[in-house]
Each structure stands twice: as C-alpha cells, then as structure tokens.
Write a structure and sequence with these properties.
Layout (H helix, E strand, L loop, with lengths): L1 H10 L2 H5 L4 H33 L3 H13 L2 H9 L7 H25 L3 H9 L4 H31 L12 H10 L2 H29 L30
Helix pairs in contact: 1-10, 3-6, 3-8, 4-6, 5-6, 6-8, 7-8, 8-10, 9-10
C-alpha cells in the first residue's frame, strides 16, 4: 500500500499541480494532443463513412480497413515515426493516435448510415427534399447515436493511450509515469496512472452526456422514471384498472 499512499500524497500536494510543467500543464498538453488526434480522425473518417454508408457499397473495405488499423499498435507507429521525417514529439503522437481513432469512427458512421431505413429516404425524397436535405435532416439524425458512439469510443481510447507520447519525447501525463519508471518511484507511476484513468472516465461521461443531448426524439434522464401525467378532468386508474 506504500505506492498508493505515496501517490495520494503526490496528488494532494497543490505544488505538484500548479508549478510550471506540473500536472495542470501536462493535463492541458495531454488534452490538446488527444483532441487534435480525434479531430483529425473525425475529419477523415466521417465523410468516408457517410459516403460508403449512403451508397450501400464498400462494406467489405470498411471491415478490412478497420481490422488492419486496429492491428497496428500505436507504439509500433511511434517507433516507425521516430526514424522517419516525422520524428519525435507531439506531432508524431497525434498522427499515431489519429490512426488509432480512425477505425471506430469509420465503422460506426458506416453502420449508422447504412442502417437508415430505405423507405424513410424514399418518403423524404417524395416530399421534395433534395439529396443534401435528406442527408442533413433525415439520415444524419437517425445515424447520430451510432456515430457518437464511435466518437466516444475513439476519444476514450485516445485519451487513455496518449500517455505513450512520453516514450518518444512528447508531452502529456505520460511524462509522470515515465519519470516514475526512471526513478523507480511507484507512487509517481500510480499517481500518473490515476490521473490518466480519471481523465478517460471523465471523457466518457462528458461524451455520454453530449450524446444524450444531441440525440433526436424525446429525452429522459437515465434512472429517472417519470409519472404518467393525466389530462385535467381525466380520471386516474386504480391498481385494478378501474377509474376512480
């Protein structure tokens, strides 16, 4: 328990958070690298997933591309980048993490748009909607829950993996873990791991709330059951089903 105790002591010291190069600075750098990686993957994967999903073609290519991308370890990419013109640092980390975030966004976008009922599309076109209006007003709202699931999965994976940046001279919270390994300080290692895990969990919660906010249709808070409201003057039913 000494390691956990040392980690709590380290995390409870305000100086470790506010000093230059401290936890707050590393946290901002960690979020910046992760955000750039997810945004880059989103810019590439979203249009491709929409194009393939609405055309109904390329399902096999999506599966192959997704599996190949998942099979490439992020650490292996960072090692390859280190001996290439890309080099070390946050740029190499952002590119490797973007490759890591690409498959879930592409797959979920493709599945979401591919799953839109064809009759709904035809009904929208019969109402005089253009192709762009059908895409924005019909297909996108219906596919949005699955698309957001892919974005959430990618973001959490990237935030949890961005600590590898410290191995190639990058920044972020991985520096705390890397420093702990270098000094054989298990408390420092555990402290860095706790902050990274908490950040990944917070990212999950924020994106779950965002998914709930943007999803179409009526919304209800989870774990909250609303009482049935009766119209004024309408008798309420008893347990036996007989009006009072």
């Amino acid at each position: 328990m000494t390691g956990f105790g040392d980690a709590l002591v380290y995390l409870n010291d305000p100086f470790n958070w506010t000093r230059p190069g401290g936890l707050l600075d590393l946290l901002v750098e960690h979020l910046a690298v992760s955000g750039i990686a997810v945004l880059a993957a989103l810019v590439l994967a979203l249009p491709l997933g929409i194009a393939l999903g609405t055309s109904g073609r390329g399902g096999g290519a999506v599966v192959v591309l997704s599996n190949v991308s998942r099979a490439v370890p992020t650490l292996a990419l960072l090692t390859l980048f280190a001996v290439s013109p890309i080099g070390f640092g946050n740029r190499a980390t952002a590119i490797a993490l973007a490759v890591f975030a690409f498959p879930p966004i592409l797959t979920n976008t493709y599945v979401g748009f591919r799953g839109v009922d064809g009759d709904v599309r035809e009904a929208a076109r019969a109402m005089g909607m253009t192709r762009g209006q059908v895409l924005r007003g019909v297909e996108l709202p219906l596919a949005l829950p699955l698309v957001m699931t892919g974005v959430r999965t990618a973001a959490v994976q990237v935030v949890a993996t961005a600590g590898l940046a410290a191995l190639v001279g990058g920044g972020g919270l991985g520096r705390v873990v890397n420093l702990g390994f270098g000094q054989q300080d298990y408390g420092l290692i555990i402290a860095g791991a706790i902050v990274i895990a908490a950040l990944a969990l917070l990212t999950e919660l924020v994106l779950v709330a965002l998914t709930w906010a943007v999803r179409p249709g009526p919304r209800r808070l989870p774990f909250v059951t609303g009482r049935r409201r009766t119209v004024r003057g309408e008798p309420e039913l008893t347990a036996t089903g007989v009006p009072q």
